[in-house]
Fold this protein.
Amino acid sequence: MLPDAMKNIFPAAGKRANSPFPLVNLISNLIFFVFGLTFGIIICFHYKSFSFNLQVTNGQFSIFTTQSSAPQQPPPRVALSSPAPPTTTNHVELQKPPRLMHGMSDEELLWRASMAPKIEEFPFERVPKIAFMFLTRGEVVMAPLWEKFFKGNQGLYSIYVHSDPSFNGSEKEGSVFRGRRIASKEVQWGNVNMVEAERRLLANALLDISNQYFVLLSESCIPLYNFSTIYSYLMNSTHTFVESYDLPGPVGRGRYNHRMGPTIALGQWRKGSQWFQMDRNLALEVIADKTYFPVFQKYCNGPCYADEHYLPTFVTMKFGGRNANRTLTWVDWARGGPHPSKFIRTDVNPGFLEKMRSGSSCEYNGNKTNVCFLFARKFTYNALDRLLRFAPSVMHFNK
Ligand SMILES: *[C@@H]1O[C@H](CO)[C@@H](O)[C@H](O)[C@H]1NC(C)=O
Ligand SMILES: *[C@@H]1O[C@H](CO)[C@@H](O)[C@H](O)[C@H]1NC(C)=O
Ligand SMILES: *[C@@H]1O[C@H](CO)[C@@H](O)[C@H](O)[C@H]1NC(C)=O
Ligand SMILES: *[C@@H]1O[C@H](CO)[C@@H](O)[C@H](O)[C@H]1NC(C)=O
Ligand SMILES: *[C@@H]1O[C@H](CO)[C@@H](O)[C@H](O)[C@H]1NC(C)=O
């Protein structure tokens, strides 16, 4: 840190030697003046190129902000197209995400996370981040691929992992996943506690005011595009991505329980993939829902599969107008059965990756596109080495 003498000089230099000096000690003031003047001249010289990103960790004093020396330039709320790591700003305290191990109960956490600022403009340059939320049993199997994906994009993403409480493995030192596990509870396939885990992930991610888009992933998910493409796609989207459709028959409307009425009518019952992508507004509504979710907790058990019905039904009932009704996570149901296809080593080749990336047609912000999926599942651990071999070039990771 700076020596004490410097602390005295810096504020004077900040005012470019125009500040009134207290007439206490002439000699020391003269030294300060000369020092301040020299410093001021240096600043004037480097006016344009100087960037004062001095991090004052104790928050005691701030010197110059980048804004004060730059020409008036309103900070963009959304940094798009070529996201650059954020520049350091002051006001660190306001933006600091809370500790992950906060010790709050679920009830306390959801309540705390449901708070939204009433003043819409941020008093600091907020660089919006994507929250990547991994719902896993154990470790994130595809972690080495995700490491490559995240590389060079620090400050534009946050990671949260909800794994089975019995999982006691630890992430490698230096891994982006290290220390990103949240306090978790047990999850069973098809049980409503799966949705509780999703809400727990959302609530933890909402505590970080910078998180703007929220992506739910499994341990077997992979990205299909590089970070900058995914970042712009999500941040520019005018829609949320919660898959939702009305399906007659036993695995659709057949899972509706009449005791859910009148809060939820049969005609409002929807189905869709659990793997969603949603913005901050919708995420807040989901964790704050005290009307529909309790009905699911009470009546959606047995062969009901809340994870395939709660979000599609809730979002379509309340926020359907802004929803794309599709998910950005590619999956293959072609092999039939209750589980989608799992892809192994020999399935992975550039052609297959291209098919997932651009082999479909859909709408994005009202325009037709063939970029319909940004993520894909389910990939097994033994597919990892071939993914690491092909993905970086097919997906333009390392440019
Ligand atoms: C992790 O849990 C397993 C059993 O689930 C146990 O055998 C192992 O010793 C544990 N490892 C550590 C490091 O605690
Ligand atoms: C997002 O919008 C910005 C400006 O509005 C544009 O420069 C950028 O190309 C857009 N990205 C995508 C993926 O549409
Ligand atoms: C998604 O479904 C809702 C409700 O049916 C509808 O209002 C909305 O327009 C649909 N979204 C798109 C992009 O078609
Ligand atoms: C959609 O397409 C129209 C016409 O091709 C174009 O003017 C518009 O910018 C496109 N919108 C987006 C969001 O890409
Ligand atoms: C990301 O991929 C796109 C093509 O999909 C490419 O044009 C772009 O340069 C890549 N971005 C980076 C940062 O490498």
Summary: DSSP finds 13 helices and nine strands in the chain. Residues 1-21, 40-80 have pLDDT under 50 and may be disordered.
